[in-house]
Specification:
Number of helices: 8
CATH topology of the largest domain: Rossmann fold
Oligomer: single chain
Strand order of the largest sheet: 5-4-6-7-8
Helix content: 40-55%
CATH superfamily of the largest domain: Glucose-6-phosphate isomerase like protein, domain 1
Number of strands: 8
Length: about 280
């Protein structure tokens, strides 16, 4: 077993709560969650890849090397996380969305769970080419999916034969599997959050083409050049992924809370104006 694998497995051994109806954050204390280096150390956020796999462009985020394995500088992780969180809170408070993307095996369910927790769109299977660059066509497919599901709920397919109903159901199921996470995304997001820069490079390329800000976890073996808000972190260990995704989720929830406060203030002001 290589030293790198040992490090990743050690980090992965940090207890992760049992899933509750696929909600990996059901018992997560977002209120008390702070960008804390000790919590990051316990989750193995600082473990990178072997020195031989280091990307030269990651040098500024690396603290040093231990047993041939790169160690990330958690002080910079905290600083970068705070910058990213402020940006996320701002755009969400303005009514924009953050698209969560995580197609690598260990990130999929965490990304889906967190996105559902904060009501954001997500992609956890293969990135569909044109999601951003051909958004008009993609919107047509997601609208077809939404309309089909509504018709099925209302029983409008009952007029068709059982075979036709089965085929329609299969088509809707296929679309749900491929684009269910973005079916309610009616406009381009205000930003994209990526958990695997290498695995989700197509999403990053499309975001760059459409000038969509990119927030991403960056490990020691990636090129962070196209990432607007990089967050240095171990993107392989489940414990690290869960903690870092939780930080981003909290930022989204905080942004939504600010949006509600702004909306309530505006409504209260309108009521006072009408009363005069």
């Amino acid at each position: 077993m290589t030293e790198e694998k040992k490090v990743v497995e050690t980090a992965a051994e940090v207890p992760v709560s049992k899933k509750v109806s696929e909600d990996y954050f059901a018992d997560f204390d977002f209120e008390g969650l702070k960008a804390d280096m000790n919590a990051m150390l316990k989750a193995g956020v600082h473990f990178g890849h072997q020195k031989s796999r280091r990307n030269p462009k990651m040098a500024e985020y690396i603290f040093g090397t231990r047993n041939g394995v790169n160690i990330l500088d958690l002080q910079k992780t905290v600083a970068c996380l705070e910058d990213a969180s402020k940006f996320i809170e701002k755009i969400v408070s303005e009514g924009q969305e953050v698209l969560f993307v995580g197609t690598k095996k260990q990130a999929k369910r965490l990304v889906e769970s967190s996105a559902r927790k904060c009501g954001m769109p997500f992609v956890i299977d293969r990135w569909l080419g044109g999601t951003f660059t051909n958004f008009t066509v993609m919107s047509g497919r997601t609208r077809f999916l939404r309309d089909g599901e509504e018709k099925m709920k209302r029983g409008e397919f009952a007029k068709y034969t059982k075979f036709e109903q089965m085929k329609m159901a299969e088509e809707l199921e296929r679309l749900e599997r491929r684009m269910g996470g973005i079916k309610n995304m009616t406009k381009l997001p205000g930003a994209i959050f990526v958990t695997g820069v290498i695995e989700d490079d197509l999403a990053i390329k499309e975001a760059v083409k459409r000038n969509i800000p990119i927030i991403a976890l960056i490990d020691t073996n990636v090129d962070p050049s196209h990432v607007d808000y990089p967050i240095p972190a171990n993107e392989d260990a489940v414990s690290s992924l869960r903690l870092m995704i939780a930080y981003v989720t909290k930022a989204v929830l905080s942004g939504k809370e600010k949006a509600r406060a702004i909306s309530n203030s505006a409504a209260a002001a309108a009521v006072k104006t009408e009363a005069k």
